[in-house]
Amino acid sequence: MRGEAVQLLTRQSLIKARVRAVRQKVWFKALSRVERNILDLTIRCVERVRSRILARIVSNILAKILKTLEPSFLEAAMRIGREIADEVCGIAEKWGNSNALRWKHDLGFARFLGVKAVNKPANLGGCIH
């Protein structure tokens, strides 16, 4: 297992992680200057990380980047659910439902819609079921 992890730490994989972190504006927010410098020096000086100590350090830094890049499932569901709830409540208000405005601020309703949308298979399209 450790050999597999070290093999994945190549210059190319580190460059990809760095580019992704910079593009998504995580590079400076999530990492300290020391951590950024460690990755930069590793990219410049090593084709493949062989040292277990360096592999552990670089892996921890990469894990920090990934944790910041990928929002948790619940955060994603809430973000998507709020968007859907806003749309659904607008439609319900147009149809004359006076309670629809309260739905918009109901976190349980937004969470339900978001989890349903996130778990929906991709082949169903963009409509609400």
Task: Give the helices and strands, then pairings.
Layout: H1 2-8, H2 11-23, H3 27-30, H4 33-45, H5 52-69, H6 73-94, H7 100-104, H8 107-119
Architecture overview:
- This protein has 2 domains: 2-69, no CATH class; 73-124, no CATH class.
- α2 (11-23) packs antiparallel against α4 and α6 (73-94) crosses α8 (107-119).
- The chain has 8 helices and no strands.
- By secondary structure, it is mostly helical.
- It has helices at residues 2-8, 11-23, 27-30, 33-45, 52-69, 73-94, 100-104, 107-119.
- The protein is 74% helix and 0% strand.
Oligomer: single chain
Q: Enumerate how many helices there are, as a single number.
A: 8
User: Helix content range of the residues, please?
Assistant: over 70%
Q: Biggest β-sheet, characterized? A: none
* Weakly predicted, low-confidence segments: 1-7, 123-129
- Report the end-to-end length measured between terminal Cα atoms: 43 Å
Structural class category: mainly alpha
